[in-house]
Amino acid sequence: MDAALIAVLGTLLGSVVTHYFQGRATVRSAELARAEQLRQERISSYSAFAGALFDFRRSQNDRWFRSHENPGGREAETARFASYEARIAARQALVRVQLVCDDPRLRQLAEQAFELTNCMHEATDETDRDRRSQRSKEALSRFVETAAPSVR
């Protein structure tokens, strides 16, 4: 009788311990899957933002050149509207970054890169435009360099 009781208690204890460790393993697996999903979403968001900002910077340069070649002309207007579309895409990509990023400094760098790009068309001459374009490019590089370790 004692041996049977010990066997039942041993089996019961083994079941409880197994259940406990399986539960912990399940929670750990779910945490790892969530972390990987967030990492993938960050990679997607950060790279989409960089691409959208690159296109926005290009359209801002084009807008500036077209408006200085032929102010008020059809090509200048077309370039202006194209820059609006690029700005919308960049703003949408910025919002995605803000949603998935939990680093305030990284969000600030993304916003700064966007704002520097947004003001490029206000350059007074080609030297100013070139300086603004370079600052925008450098801000985007700082964002990418700062974001990279969080997605590796």
Number of domains: 1
> Uncertain runs with pLDDT below 50, 5 residues or more?
none
Using the 3D structure, state the CATH architecture. Answer: Up-down Bundle
Order of helices and strands: HHHH
CATH third-level topology: Four Helix Bundle (Hemerythrin (Met), subunit A)
Specify the biggest β-sheet: none
Total helical elements: 4
Structural class: mainly alpha
Query: Percent of residues in helical segments?
Result: over 70%
Distance between the termini: 59 Å
At the first level of CATH, the class is Mainly Alpha
Mass-distribution shape: rod-shaped
What does this entry show, briefly?
By secondary structure, the protein is mainly α.
Keywords:
152 residues; mainly alpha; Four Helix Bundle (Hemerythrin (Met), subunit A); 4 helices
Description:
The protein has 152 residues and is mainly alpha-helical. The chain has 4 helices and no strands.
Outline the secondary-structure elements.
Elements: H1 2-69, H2 74-100, H3 104-118, H4 126-147
Helix pairs in contact: 1-2, 1-3, 1-4, 2-3, 3-4
